[in-house]
Amino acid sequence: MEIDVFIPAHAKDFPVLPAAIRSIRTYVTPRVRSITVIAKAQAPGLDRVLTDSGALFVDEDEVLSPFRRSEMPPIIVNGEDRAGWYFQQCLKWGVAKRS
Fold first, then answer.
1. C-alpha separations of 4 from 28, 32, 37 in Å
2. DSSP labels, 65-82
3. How far apart are CA 67 and CA 44, in angstroms?
4. In Å, how far are 78, 84, 86 from 75, measured between CA atoms?
5. pLDDT tens digits for 17-34?
6. Would you say 73 and 41 are in contact if contact means Cβ atoms under 8 Å apart?
7. What is the helix (H) or strand (E) element at residue 22, kind and residue range?
8. If we measure between CA atoms, which residue out of 87, 61, 63, 64 comes closest to residue 74?
9. pTM of whole model > 0.90?
10. Please, are residues 56 and 33 in contact by the beta-carbon 8 Å criterion?
């Protein structure tokens, strides 16, 4: 049996993403068939991460189309805007529905 792995990522995650992808390939069982990064298409540094890691890519704006992160209202929890976290959960759900 093989599995597909999907990683929602933001540009701030890119410095550690190659190491995370290597670790997934090394340590995750059952065997990983593919790793797909879900991020903004124009995110700085994304091309290098994908080239260096051999991961696939899905534009986050296409996963929940026509809904986009920029359309979400603020979701304030304990004084902090958590809309990005909620959007990430929606991306995971959207990818699962597409697969």
1. 11, 6, 11
2. TT--GGGPPP-EETTEE-
3. 22
4. 10, 9, 8
5. 999 999 999 999 999 999
6. no
7. helix 17-27
8. 87
9. no
10. no
